[in-house]
Design a protein that fits this description.
Layout lengths: L1 E4 L2 H12 L4 E3 L6 E3 L5 H11 L9 E2 L15 H10 L4 E6 L14 E5 L4 H10 L3 E2 L1 E2 L11 H8 L5 E4 L10 E4 L6 E4 L5 H4 L7 E2 L5 H4 L2
Parallel strand pairs: 1-9, 2-9, 4-6, 5-10, 11-12
Antiparallel strand pairs: 2-3, 3-8, 4-7, 5-6, 10-11
Helix pairs in contact: 1-4
C-alpha cells in the first residue's frame, strides 16, 4: 500500500484500482473516506474486515452527480430533491429507500441507503472515472477517531489498502449531517456541519430524531 499525493494522475490510478476490486482511502470535504465500488461484493467484504465493522451496519454511499443518485436509491421525495439541489455537493447525507439493484451488503440487510455527493474534487473525479458509486464510510477502524488526514487513515488501517490519496487535512473535519427521508416526518439523525434550522428552509417538516430512553438503549 502506498500513500501518494492527491492529483489527477493518482486519481486515475485510484479509479483503476477500484474497478479491479481494490479498497482505497481518499480525502473528502468532511473526513477521509474508505472507498470500494458498491457493486463489487469482494471489495465491500474486504472493507468490512479492514474496519472491523459489524456487517449489519449499513455503509454510506457517495455519488458524483444528482443523476447517479437514482442508481442506488428510489422513491425520492420532492423535499429530498430540494435538499440535494441546495446542499449538494456538500456535507449532507440523505437516507432514502434503496434501489433494488443495490447489494444488501451495503445496506446491512436493510431497505434504506445513506447517500452523499461530497464537495471535494477527489471523490467526484474517482467516482466519475469508475462509472459507479463507491462507499463513503470513514477511513478508520470501527469506533476509532475520525480520520482528518491521510496519515490518520494509514495509521488505523495499516497496509491492507490498495492506495491512500493524500490531499492534506480535511477542510471540515467532522462527519456529515444525516437526514432520514424515509420517516414521517423526516428526521435529523445526526447534526453535523448543517444545522436543523438551515435544513428546515428546504424541508419545513424536518424534526430532530427523538432521544432513546435508557430502556431502549439497553435493548
Amino acid at each position: 500500500m502506498s500513500r501518494v499525493p492527491d492529483n489527477a494522475n493518482n486519481r486515475s490510478v485510484a479509479a483503476i484500482l477500484l474497478r479491479e476490486g481494490g479498497v482505497i482511502a481518499f480525502p473528502t470535504d468532511t473526513v477521509y473516506g474508505l472507498g470500494a465500488v458498491v457493486f463489487k461484493a469482494g471489495a465491500v467484504s474486504s472493507l468490512f474486515v479492514m474496519k472491523a465493522r459489524p456487517r449489519d451496519l449499513a455503509l454510506p454511499v457517495l455519488v458524483a452527480s444528482e443523476s447517479q443518485l437514482r442508481e442506488v436509491a428510489r422513491d425520492i421525495p420532492e423535499y429530498g430533491t430540494e435538499l440535494a439541489k441546495r446542499f449538494w455537493p456538500g456535507p449532507l447525507t440523505l437516507v432514502l429507500p434503496r434501489h433494488p439493484m443495490l447489494p444488501s451488503a451495503i445496506t446491512g440487510g436493510g431497505d434504506t441507503v445513506a447517500v452523499r455527493l461530497p464537495d471535494h474534487p477527489a471523490p467526484q473525479a474517482i467516482i466519475s472515472a469508475c462509472g459507479a458509486p463507491i462507499t463513503g464510510t470513514s477511513a478508520n477502524k470501527h469506533g476509532g477517531p475520525e480520520p482528518r488526514t491521510a496519515a490518520d487513515a494509514q495509521r488505523q488501517l495499516g497496509n491492507r489498502l490498495s492506495l491512500v490519496l493524500d490531499g492534506g487535512p480535511s477542510p471540515i473535519g467532522v462527519p456529515s449531517t444525516v437526514v432520514d427521508l424515509t420517516t414521517s416526518p423526516p428526521t435529523l439523525v445526526r447534526e453535523g456541519p448543517l444545522s436543523l434550522e438551515l435544513l428546515r428552509e428546504e424541508c419545513p417538516t424536518l424534526e430532530r430524531q427523538p432521544e432513546l430512553t435508557p430502556a431502549e438503549r439497553s435493548g
